[in-house]
Amino acid sequence: MKEWVHQLNKAFENRVRLGIMSVLMVNEAVSFNRLKELLGVTDGNLASHLRALEKLDYVEMKKTFLDRKSHTTYDVSALGRKAFTEHLNALESLLKP
């Protein structure tokens, strides 16, 4: 088996997690609602995938209050950035002839 296969990260096999990481890699501190809007998923679906990525320390959550309302944002962690970059490199290797 090729070496790149072992570099594919199972955490990113799901389209929602792949989408979350893609958005966070190119943006700073994206709100929960914006992620939900961009990915076209329900609150519960997004929350469960974000929780899974948080458990792996791939994303970081920050809660603040704006006009007395809770405002939750997410950002990619250094570990998450490294893991996702390695995953993308493995996918690129797959596509090379």
UniProtKB/TrEMBL annotation:
- Return the InterPro entries for the record: ArsR-like_HTH, WH-like_DNA-bd_sf, WH_DNA-bd_dom, WH_DNA-bd_sf
Output the superkingdom of the source species.
Bacteria
The Winged helix DNA-binding domain extends over 16-95
What would be one Pfam family of this protein? HTH_34
Q: What biological processes does GO assign it?
A: regulation of DNA-templated transcription
Q: Output the PANTHER family linked to this UniProt entry.
A: BSL7504 PROTEIN
Protein name in the entry: Transcriptional regulator
Q: What is the lineage of its organism?
A: Bacteria, Pseudomonadati, Bacteroidota, Flavobacteriia, Flavobacteriales
